[in-house]
Amino acid sequence: MSDRLTGRVVIVTGGARGLGRAYADRLTAAGATVCVVDVERGAPYEADVTSADAVDAVVAAVLDRHGRIDGLVNNAGGAMLPSAPFDSFSRAEWSRVVDVNLTGQWVCAAAVAPAMRAAGYGKIVNVSSTVVAKGGPVGLSPYIAAKAGVVGLTRALARELGPAGIRVNAIAPGYIPVDTPKAVHSPAAAAALEERVAAEQCLPLVGKPSDLAPVVEFLCSADSDFVTGQVLNVDGGWVHG
Questions:
Q1: DSSP character for 88?
Q2: Cα torsion for 142, 175, 108, 45, to the nearest 10°?
Q3: At 238, is the secondary structure helix, strand, or coil?
Q4: Residue burial 177-193, b: 16+ Cβ < 10 Å; e: rest
Q5: Which of 53, 75, 195, 240 could form a disulfide with 20 if both were Cys (CB 3.0 to 4.6 A apart)?
Q6: What structural domains and CATH numbers belong to the chain?
Q7: Is residue 143 annotated as part of the catalytic site, yes or no?
Q8: Out of 23, 45, 143, 175, which one is annotated catalytic?
Q9: In 3-state terms, what secondary structure has residue 12?
Q10: Residues facing residue 124 across a β-bridge
């Protein structure tokens, strides 16, 4: 394990469990001071990323304690709903998925930008999804639309924040099975999806959180200082396949 993030302070949203936990653990192992933000009670920094006031309070607390913010991993999100036809979702259901997966990333980026601008340096890593390129699985239209928005947000922020020394990139994970409090698919459907996706990939392997975390570390480190506005597919070649 490297120590290339020693001395850096990185906020990871949705970092209490699942993929966010894997990112936080990897960044900590690389030497970073990681500040985990999550809506779960008992999280080190408890906040709903869709609330600007709550996120601003977290950023203020991190700056008060550590004096700097070098990185932000915008991981909070999720499909949050069982799959269903696109025209069966209520407006409230649609808005909630878009708010958590897209608007929350904008809220968090806006909150950390002043500190990064003042430092003349920063790394923002947004989390999109390979489903944007695939347009499926069918039944997750709010999630797919929101994650497509993350791609546009990433490119816009890279252009706008680049002159201030802030790099903005995104990762697009493939299908990575993780334990979640609310399953989108039944166990049988999830197993079938896992098998089908692996068969469609260039690498017929089931993805793991540990396949994604090193890429997040790279994008948070100085090794990626000439990389911005990019979306890195980490999917075993699912899109290519």
A1: G
A2: 120
A3: coil
A4: eeeeeeebbeeeeeeee
A5: 75
A6: 9-234 (3.40.50.720)
A7: yes
A8: 143
A9: strand
A10: 72, 168
> Token match 């334990």: residue?
179
Q: What is the pTM (predicted TM-score) of this model?
A: 0.94
pLDDT (0 to 100) of residue 178 = 85
13: left (phi over 0), alpha (psi -120 to 50) or beta: beta
Q: Which two tokens stand for residue 227?
A: 């990389």
CA dist., res. 205 & res. 133, Å (int): 19
Residue 46 CA to residue 48 CA, distance in Å, equals: 7
The single-letter DSSP state of residue 100 is: I
- Cα Rg, the chain, nearest whole Å: 17
Cβ partners under 8 Å of residue 122, min gap 6: 69, 70, 71, 72, 112, 113, 115, 116, 161, 164, 165, 166, 167
Joined together, the tokens standing for residue 144 give 């797919």
* Tokens coding 233: 């597919």
Residue 57 DSSP code: H
- pLDDT by residue for the chain (241 residues), tens only, comes to 678 999 999 999 999 999 999 999 999 999 999 999 999 999 999 999 999 999 999 999 999 999 999 999 999 999 888 889 999 999 999 999 999 999 999 999 999 999 999 999 999 999 999 999 999 889 999 999 999 999 999 999 999 999 999 999 999 999 998 876 555 567 887 888 889 989 999 999 999 999 999 999 999 999 999 999 999 999 999 998 6
